[in-house]
Amino acid sequence: MEEIIAVACIFIGLPWVILHYITKWKTAATITNDDEVLLEELYRLAKRLDERMDTVERLVANDDPSFKPARIAPDLDADNQPLRELDRLLAKRGERK
Description:
Elements: H1 2-28, H2 33-63, H3 77-96
């Protein structure tokens, strides 16, 4: 009787436990609906904060003509240079792996 229980544990119980945790691992690695809602909420919050920063910068620029915003602009070469350097470093790191 003990042999039957041991064989059942090895051939039924052990694969069941392994497959159960593999399934849990795979479902945990995907984005859930709650995660998507949270990402959407964070995106909307970031957009609102960006609009507020634009407003604040506009108000400060009206009060002080020497004010220069410290935000990254997409078409300025001075802002794009650090991004190019980061891309170069990441590409170099990718070649080593």
